[in-house]
Amino acid sequence: MRFGNSLNYWNVDNGLMDLSRGSLSSRTIGLEDNRRLRFNPERSAIVVIDMQNFFGSEQLGRGPSTRDLVPNLSRLIACGRAAGVRIAWVNWGNRADLANLPPSVLYAFGKHQHAPGIGGPLPGNLGPSLLKDTWSTEILDALKPSYDNGDWWIDKYRLSGFPGTVLDATLRAAGIETLFFTGVNVDQCVWSTFLDAGNLGYDCVLVKDCTATSSPSFCYDAVVYNISRQTGLVTTSDKFCTANS
Question: How many Å apart are CA 173 and CA 12, to the nearest integer?
Fold first, then answer.
């Protein structure tokens, strides 16, 4: 069965979700529900969200959940890059004057007296919190080898990577249709970006073992449940890296 129009469509048949739009360079991977996904690598991107010191560094007392993603995520990025998939690093990187941040965002990060708000000083002389070009917004050291100068770096200013950023324009200029989502926190910034991408018309796939959260486990489960039931598709790094041409 075809969903869409003559130029932009999915073909769904016998457990195969074909999102390739007729591309001759398509690849097929497994999904978590035993279906298969066919996509065009040249029109796909892996979106890496908030794998930054602020959310994963031991120097800030962060738990291991973010750091534990590095092996799977590094492999996924390498497999994707080898197949021609683009890599988009979508990270907090706020203006020093915070001029574009509304009270709601400032409150969300500043309401806890024991932690600095956006722009506030981090402990241990680690610099300001979540400002562009500071330590807290750098990629985790263990993940830096996976970054390439040809990748896209997108500064974001909300939970979602789309409002007020160049993410949508960058993806559309490259003809990207299918997005594979990774990073933290899956129930906050990943989920918000995922939903906005779906509303903008992108194909959205969550790479389950390349996402994590510091929230209770039911928050993670709710995101996966909702994606599986309605808003997108779910795969793993192993399934992605064992794709068939």
Answer: 27
Rg of the chain taking only CA atoms, in angstroms: 18
Structural domain range at position 109: 2-241
Extract long-range pairs of 8-12: CB within 8 Å, 24+ residues apart. Answer: 8/177, 8/201, 10/203
Q: Check: CB of residue 155 under 8 Å from CB of residue 132.
A: yes
Per the CB < 8 A criterion, the answer to whether 11 and 2 are in contact is yes
pTM: 0.96
Question: Amino acid identity of 235?
Answer: T
Q: What is the CATH number of the domain that holds 18?
A: 3.40.50.850
Helix ranges (H only) for 174-232 are 191-199, 217-226
Torsion sign, CA atoms 36, 42, 45, 46:
positive
Sign, CA torsion 233/46/155/136: positive
Domain tally, the chain: 1
Q: 51 is written with which tokens? A: 């794998």
Residue 180, burial from CB neighbour count under 10 angstroms (0-12, 13-18, 19+): buried
What H or E segment, with its residue span, contains residue 183?
A: strand 178-183
Whether omega for the bond prior to residue 185 falls within 30 degrees of 0, making it cis, is yes
Return per-residue pLDDT of the chain as tens, 245 residues: 999 999 999 999 999 999 999 999 999 999 998 999 999 999 999 999 999 999 999 999 999 999 999 999 999 999 999 999 999 999 999 999 999 999 999 999 988 767 789 999 999 999 999 999 999 999 999 999 999 999 999 999 999 999 999 999 999 999 999 999 999 999 999 999 999 999 999 999 999 999 999 999 999 999 999 999 887 899 999 999 998 76
